[in-house]
Design a protein that fits this description.
Layout: H1 3-27, E1 41-43, E2 63-78, E3 81-88, E4 97-100, E5 104-111, E6 122-123, H2 133-136, E7 143-149, E8 154-159, H3 165-170, E9 174-180, E10 190-199, E11 209-211, H4 215-220, E12 225-228, E13 241-244, E14 248-257, E15 262-266, E16 271-275, E17 282-286, E18 288-291, E19 295-302, E20 307-313, H5 317-322, E21 325-331
Parallel strand pairs: 1-2, 2-5, 3-11, 4-9, 10-14, 13-21
Antiparallel strand pairs: 2-3, 5-7, 6-8, 8-9, 10-12, 14-19, 15-18, 15-20, 16-17, 16-19, 20-21
The structure holds copper (II) ion (CU).
Copper (II) ion binds next to loops.
């Protein structure tokens, strides 16, 4: 081997080393790597609470088209009590969006023609001023479009950000977006979507008929209703969530606020895993977890004993006097080694 050949080989070794070091550095950026190649396109399959879209099976990012519609609609707040809700997807909470880290999202926000007001969306999964609020602002009968890349995995709240923002949120304009990490989430038996929020009505809790929003109570943080999934007993009694003994249940829990922090608890269960505030840190064996207003958590629990489990905000007057209750009904065999009467 002559000297020329040796120096050429040496040079190519250096080049390869530089290239691979460069790749390593970009992998280490705060977003866990944005160097994955985006290929293909799909339309997001959205769901309404308490259901969650199916897990993502792709092992690469893609372009995801998300079509949301804002709708103003009178719906049930409690038995014999109605409210003029402002919504994403004609439901409270709004559509659940499920994407993968590094997906490129095209978000089309359509404001229904019979809406009275403009609306918009601020997704906490967005890197960019306002979370998309300004780009997405849309008048009745129109559609706005903006794009964002889902750099950070986690469970995030989205909400309307049109003035007066507190009123738009108080009337029901929020939902959840899950950005799955590159490798996905571990498989579980059942997944559900639960979102807490509170309502400020002119009349007190339990009043029959159509209720109006009370700005003064909102400012004073004096909620009449604190509910899961948009109304009293939306997922309790005959509409309870279901599971079987031996199954692991994952709840994607959001708190739309607009004011209150949730002391989230399932009576008679322990969360084996809690993705604290919807992020990457997993805490184990927790009884109650705090969910801030505008925040979320993923909780997982294995159901060992059959029966009915109450899902509550353990700020307990909210359960008995304001509606903060949902339920999981678990069927299957008793296990007296775990739980029995004497
Ligand atoms: Cu709005």
């Amino acid at each position: 081997m002559n000297m020329n050949k040796i120096s050429r080989n040496f040079l190519s070794v250096i080049i390869v080393a530089v290239i691979s070091t460069g790749c390593k550095n970009s992998d280490k950026n705060k977003n866990g790597g944005t160097d994955e190649e985006v290929s293909g396109q799909e339309t997001a399959q959205l769901s309404l609470a308490p259901m969650v879209p199916p897990p993502i099976t792709r092992n690469h990012p893609t372009k995801v088209v998300v079509n949301l519609t804002t709708v103003e609609k009178v719906m049930r707040l409690a038995d014999s009590t109605q409210y003029m809700f402002w919504t994403f997807g004609a439901a409270v909470p709004g559509n659940f969006i499920r994407v993968r880290q590094n997906d490129e999202i095209e978000l089309n926000l359509t404001n229904a023609p019979d809406s009275k007001l403009s609306h918009s969306i601020d997704l906490h999964a967005v890197n960019g001023p306002g979370g998309g609020a300004e780009f997405s602002s849309v008048a009745p009968g129109h559609t706005s479009t903006f794009h964002f890349k889902a750099l950070n995995p986690g469970l995030f709240v989205y909400h309307c950000a049109t003035a007066p923002v507190p009123m738009h949120i108080a009337n029901g304009m929020y939902g959840l977006i899950l950005v799955e990490p590159k490798g996905g989430l571990p498989k579980v038996d059942r997944e559900y979507y639960i979102m807490q929020s509170e309502f400020y009505t002119k009349q007190s809790f339990g009043f029959k008929g159509l209720q109006e929003f009370d700005m003064d109570k909102g400012i004073k943080e004096q909620a009449e209703y604190v509910v899961f999934n948009g109304s009293v007993n939306a997922n309790a009694g005959k509409n309870a969530l279901i599971a079987k003994v031996g199954e692991t249940v994952r709840l994607f829990v959001g708190n739309g606020g607009p004011n209150l922090v949730s002391s989230f608890h399932v009576i008679g269960e322990i969360f084996e895993n809690v993705y604290l505030e919807g992020g990457e840190t997993i805490s184990h064996n927790m009884g109650t977890t705090l969910i801030p207003s505008g925040g979320a958590a993923i909780v997982e629990m294995k159901m060992n004993v059959p029966g009915t489990y109450n899902i509550v905000d353990h700020s307990i007057f909210r359960v008995f006097n304001k509606g903060a209750l949902a339920q999981i009904k678990v069927s299957g065999r008793e296990d007296s080694t775990i739980f029995r009467r004497n």
